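Page 37, continued from 36.
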């Protein structure tokens, strides 16, 4: 499977990524259904860190479930081309028509905890997202649109302002800061 080989080849930038890479690979080896959200323990997701051409701003959405400014992303739902998942979710959640990969290579890896929550009137139990992040680029002059089902805002932030806007401390310290640092 191509994505497993890409994850194996990925060089972690920090201890968090090294440990999470091992967890993701172990889980994928033992759980063939991990690309489907029907796996109640953990499943594959893809996220995008969307930057402008100058790499001075990041596009974030105000996520309804997490009540915070966050990156875009979503479930693989059987798709093994996680870059395509990240691009699709970026377009759906922001209204962008054109979003391109800065590189087809993995930008970051994370194991993310998801607290139990309600979605479409049903309870979703706490679980893990085995996440692959890609660096995408978009034109900041392109018109943005809220995805009513998932978010209530879409906005460009400077790199530092993106960190200040998020109300999820773990994401800010362990993920978003790391993603910004990799841009430098």
């Amino acid at each position: 499977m191509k994505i497993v080989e890409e994850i194996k080849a990925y060089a972690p930038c920090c201890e968090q990524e090294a440990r999470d890479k091992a967890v993701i690979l172990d889980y994928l080896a033992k759980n063939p259904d991990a690309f489907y959200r029907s796996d109640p323990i953990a499943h594959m997701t893809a996220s995008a860190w969307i930057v402008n051409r100058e790499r001075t701003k990041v596009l974030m959405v105000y996520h309804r479930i997490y009540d915070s400014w966050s990156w875009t992303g979503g479930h693989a739902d059987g798709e093994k081309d996680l870059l395509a998942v990240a691009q699709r979710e970026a377009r759906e959640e922001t209204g962008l028509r054109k979003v391109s990969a800065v590189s087809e290579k993995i930008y970051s890896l994370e194991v993310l905890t998801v607290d139990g929550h309600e979605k479409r009137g049903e309870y979703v139990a706490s679980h893990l997202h085995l996440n692959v992040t890609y660096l995408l680029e978009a034109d900041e002059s392109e018109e943005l649109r809220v995805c009513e089902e998932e978010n209530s805002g879409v906005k460009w932030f400077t790199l530092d302002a993106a960190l200040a806007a998020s109300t999820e401390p773990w994401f800010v310290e362990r993920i978003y800061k790391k993603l910004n640092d990799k841009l430098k």
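The CA atoms of residues 2 and 80 lie 8 Å apart. Flag for discussion at group meeting. The chain has a mean pLDDT of 96.
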